[in-house]
Design a protein that fits this description.
Elements (H helix, E strand, L loop, with lengths): L4 E4 L5 H10 L4 E9 H7 L11 E7 L8 H23 L4 E4 L16 E5 L11 H14 L2 E4 L2 H10 L7 E3 L18 E8 L8 H10 L4 E5 L11 H10 L4 E3 L8 H7 E6 L6 H5 L3 H7 L5 E4 L12 E3 L2 H13 L6 H9 L3 H24 L7
Parallel strand pairs: 1-2, 1-4, 2-3, 4-5, 5-6, 6-7, 8-9, 8-11, 9-10, 11-12, 12-13
């Protein structure tokens, strides 16, 4: 029987690797990471795990290999990708599906058949590099036109890319971030820190610090905990940094600093309410699928968020607020227990959003995109939800 295989490129982020790891239950998987020498030396990255069946490949290159000197390195990068494709092809006797999470990969995968190409859109990439938005869009458009399937983390990106590519709209689908199973709270009825509201993440300009200060001032009886790295420092504070400093100086706001990744889930579990006070006008927030959505829901605790597009998919599970008055009122009611909340039901929902479920969903989308015959021939079992 012919087996299906997957080559997951640029698996540098936890969520790309999480997909690769979950796909390993359905076929042979190779995950490739790309780093330039300087970043590899600075970050000293480790694979999240080494026990699964995923074959892990690390590729390190001189600086500029994917930027200024990309044309020079392009033949080498194509050979590396073809080497890994050939290895999987020999192993499974079929062409692997190639997952491409970034536009810069487009020139390196031109030898991959269109029917085997998956574009995995994580963000609005033009926001990554304001100096090259046209080049980024051109490469992204190439991937969308070619790819058998384009999956986007955020519904905003689905709508944006469908509008740009109406002829391929039926091949562009929503594929939100999953949650790591370890984040599911095994005891959601356990006591929390009384009267606490928690935020876990980098404390950068994506947070609306003026909103935070206004809510905290309206709710002096609550303790607002911020767990994360300040980051975003520069010579001479920007306006948002000054606003952040004022917010963090309030008597009922506690800055706990960064914590190891292994402890993040415990902070979600310990607070009475979690919240995500994101700036609703920040372009990155508008276009993103924050990891905080599923991580917070997996805690079983009530979750309050400013009204960014992605949270509107969960109106029965996330309390959307648009003003400091509304946020303070909702948080007060939740802290007092005036709003009914079922932690077990929330955990049950989150348990259906783990990465193994996302892998099955990807196989469903591939089947719906016209690969049903191929998947059946490969022996893959696709469970319909």
């Amino acid at each position: 029987m012919v087996a299906r295989s997957f080559l997951v490129l640029a698996a540098n982020t936890p969520w790309v690797y999480a997909l690769a790891r979950s796909l390993a239950a359905h076929g042979s998987v190779t995950a490739v990471r790309f780093y330039d020498w300087a970043n590899h030396r600075r970050l000293r990255p480790q694979w999240p795990e080494t026990e699964s069946a995923v074959r892990r490949v690390l590729v390190t290159m001189p600086q500029g290999y994917a930027g200024q000197f990309e044309l020079m390195f392009r033949p080498l990068m194509r050979r590396i990708i073809e080497r890994e494709r050939s290895r999987l092809r020999r192993q499974t006797r079929s062409d692997p599906l190639v997952v491409c999470p970034y536009p810069y990969l487009a020139p390196w995968v031109r030898d991959v058949p269109d029917s085997c190409l998956i574009y995995y859109n994580l963000d609005e990439y033009s926001l990554y590099d304001h100096a090259r938005p046209e080049q980024i869009r051109r490469l992204e458009d190439e991937l969308i036109r070619r790819a058998r399937l384009t999956v986007c983390l955020s519904v905003h990106q689905v709508e944006t890319l469908r509008a740009r590519h109406p002829a391929h709209a039926n091949r562009i689908a929503h594929f939100p971030l999953g949650v790591v199973e370890e984040f599911l709270n095994p005891a959601p009825e356990s006591p929390t820190l009384h009267g606490t509201v928690g935020y876990v993440g980098n404390l950068i300009d994506r947070v609306d610090w003026g909103f935070v200060a206004a809510v905290a001032e309206r709710l002096p009886e609550a303790k607002f905990h911020f767990v994360g790295d300040l980051g975003g420092e520069s010579n001479g504070a920007r306006a948002w940094q000054e606003t952040r400093a004022r917010a963090l100086s309030l008597p009922n706001i506690v800055h706990a600093g960064p914590v190891p990744q292994a402890e993040v889930r415990e902070h979600y579990w310990r607070y009475a309410v979690n919240w995500m006070p994101y700036d609703m006008a920040h372009r990155f927030n508008v276009a993103s699928c924050p990891t905080k959505i599923m991580d917070a829901l997996a805690s079983g605790r009530p979750f309050v968020s400013t009204d960014i597009p992605e949270i509107r998919l969960y109106p029965d599970r996330i309390h959307a607020v648009r003003s400091p008055d509304e946020a303070a009122s909702r948080l007060r009611a939740l802290l007092r227990g005036d709003i009914r909340h079922d932690p077990r039901e929330q955990i049950a929902f989150a348990a259906m959003q783990t990465w193994p479920h996302r892998a099955i969903r990807l196989l469903e989308l591939l089947a719906d995109s016209g690969m049903e015959t191929e998947l059946a021939a490969s022996g893959l079992e696709v469970a319909r939800s």
